[in-house]
Amino acid sequence: MDFRATPGQNAGMRHTSPLRLAVGLIACAVCLIITRAAETPAAPALTLRVMTFNLRFASLQPPHAWPERRPIMKHLVEREAPDVIGTQEGVYYQLRDLAADLPVYDWIGLGREGGSRGEFMAVFYRRDRFEPVAYDHFWLSDTPEVIASKSWGNQIPRMATWVRFRERATGREFIFWNTHLDHQSEPARQQAAALIRDRIAAGDQTVPLLLVGDFNCFGGASVAYTRLTQEAGLTDTWFAAPARENEDFNSFQNYEPPKHHRERIDWILARRPAAVERAAVVTYEENGQTPSDHFPVTATVRF
């Protein structure tokens, strides 16, 4: 019997070419990568309840003396239960009082005159949920690293404080900025907003970021607002929220009956939030006494 293969049999028994083998292996590898990527769990959502609150400095003289306002402020914060708070105007002993009243929070800050002197842009945060991994302060001037420096027409120094936080449970990080722009000089507000815009742009772009404060100009209708939203790429959480509580209230009421002109000088801005669940102007008071001459503003933001 002749076992030699015919020409047709030889053709069917040829080995697979190296090129076809390589293509097949690459296709298998791509499928494996895609499958594993699909199986890898996404990073957990980071949901933050944020508050910005101008505390009004702690005068001991009535009316609206700090001893009268202190317990009301404690009750307000406990009721709202924010995860992180950007405060403005607090002085050192006032901030220590607030920390004593709210033991679930820790805080970071520096007086605008240096050390414990002057008003702070103090940041309060829930100590059980977050740990600070970095922080710094700078002044809103031509010489930002010089303590108490001022430029552009403002009569008092203005500053910003930022903190980078890590969520203890997940390891996720975010950066929280807090500031207070000048109440008199429009050029100072514009220049300060440009400085903050540029410093945010120079920082880490890979993590969520929040910027809060008393900006002393109206959200949606000022040069500083344009620089910090359109130019800096930040979202105003107030307008992003599907539900806004006390939408027509002014955020600054000066211890007077609330005004309903939709004039909001206290903002919460966020970089690329996945969603803003709600926002509010918090009009809490007890027996006609508000805790400050500003209403705090809150937002629940998800990244």
Work out the helix count.
Answer: 7
Global shape? globular
* Tally of separate domains: 2
* Overall mean confidence score, pLDDT: 91
Indicate the percent of residues in helices: 25-40%
The CATH superfamily of the largest domain is known as Endonuclease/exonuclease/phosphatase
Give the amount of beta strand, in percent: 25-35%
Number of strands: 13
Work out the radius of gyration. Answer: 27 Å
Kindly report the CATH topology of the largest domain. Deoxyribonuclease I, Chain A
What's the CATH architecture of the largest domain?
A: 4-Layer Sandwich
End-to-end distance, in Å? 77 Å
Q: Please provide the ordered H/E string of secondary-structure elements.
A: HHEHEHEEEEEHEHEHEEEE
What is the CATH class designation of the largest domain? Alpha Beta
Largest sheet: 7 strands, mixed
The main sheet orders its strands as 3-4-2-1-13-12-10
Q: Which segments are poorly predicted (pLDDT under 50) over 5 or more consecutive residues?
A: 1-14
Strand-pairing-aware structural class: alpha+beta
SSE order and pairing:
Elements: H1 7-12, H2 18-39, E1 47-54, H3 66-80, E2 84-88, H4 92-101, E3 105-108, E4 123-126, E5 130-139, E6 159-167, E7 173-180, H5 186-202, E8 209-214, H6 223-231, E9 234-236, H7 237-240, E10 244-245, E11 266-271, E12 275-281, E13 297-302
Parallel strand pairs: 1-2, 7-8, 10-12
Antiparallel strand pairs: 1-13, 2-4, 3-4, 5-6, 6-7, 8-11, 9-11, 12-13
Helix pairs in contact: 3-4, 5-6
